[in-house]
Amino acid sequence: MSRAPAREPFGARLRAAMDARGPLCVGIDPHPSLLASWGLADDVGGLETFTRTVVEALADRVAVLKPQSAFFERFGSRGVAVLERAVAEARGAGALVITDAKRGDIGSTMAAYAAAYLEKGSPLFSDAVTVSPYLGLGALRPALETARDNGCGVFVLALTSNPEGAEVQHARGEDGRAVAAAVLEQLRAENAGAEPFGSFGAVVGATLGDVPERLGAPLAINGPLLAPGIGAQGAAAEDLPRVFGTAASHVLPSVSRGVLRHGPGVEALRAAAATQAEELARFLS
């Protein structure tokens, strides 16, 4: 039997953060071109300066920060140490942290991933983590249970905006349902009865247009919808109501370059994030 969470569930904490700070998730994506545009070296020193600046600028004012784990892992243990400090410092300043790791495995390996990101005491303990369901959503059960036990969340890849994703996500099973529709249906069941919404979200690209409707994949899962694709990938705030329909109030848009390109100045980053949050709120209220 699952233990009661020791703190308020992630879904409730996310709703409160979005209401107080605006519906914006800013990605922390220190890829080489951004480091260069900030005048930083593509090394651990540049990584640390970049990351600390973003956390200092935004952690006390945006709802969510989302570090992309791969850009830290590429520097080995020293890069992961930067990620550990960033997660702790961002959460300490009041932002919720979604670690974008897209983990997915089975059995004890999935349980180990869950422990790394979703158990208190772990150096990478985050408010939520992204995961891949394509070994079967049931294989993610250790992550779902660990998240529930610790008041954390999980965001499951459902309808991503990259063209290659359609090969799997749009495929139909024997029952005629698209794979993505089946993932969303199972998340809806996990979130049943939760208020103001559940802690188990889906990743749904903001660039998809009417794809969810054509696939028969209702996006109302009583949980958050993490929506990448605003800005550099081609989607705009005004596209969100068309893509998400009645589920728009549950959307957490994720913006990375649209904010980060305004660095390295702290005030410029803050101004860019504020502008993004205000514009997004206009279309998601």
UniProtKB/TrEMBL annotation:
Question: Which reaction is catalysed here?
Answer: orotidine 5'-phosphate + H(+) = UMP + CO2
* PROSITE patterns membership: OMPDECASE
Query: What are the GO MF terms of this UniProt record?
Result: orotidine-5'-phosphate decarboxylase activity
Orotidine 5'-phosphate decarboxylase domain location, by residue? 23-272
Pathway of action: Pyrimidine metabolism; UMP biosynthesis via de novo pathway; UMP from orotate: step 2/2
Keyword match Secreted: no
Annotated keywords: Decarboxylase, Lyase, Pyrimidine biosynthesis
Q: Which catalytic residues are annotated?
A: K102 (proton donor)
Enzyme class, UniProt record, top EC level? lyase
Q: Which InterPro entries match?
A: Aldolase_TIM, OMPdecase_AS, OMPdecase_type-2, OMPdeCOase_dom, RibuloseP-bd_barrel
SMART domains linked: OMPdecase
Is Lyase one of the keywords UniProt gives this record?
yes
Q: What is its EC number?
A: 4.1.1.23
Domain of life (superkingdom): Bacteria
In the record, the note on similarity to other proteins reads: Belongs to the OMP decarboxylase family. Type 2 subfamily.
State what protein this is by name. Answer: Orotidine 5'-phosphate decarboxylase
Taxonomic source organism: Streptomyces hazeniae
Please name the taxonomic classification of the source: Bacteria, Bacillati, Actinomycetota, Actinomycetes, Kitasatosporales
The protein's gene is named pyrF
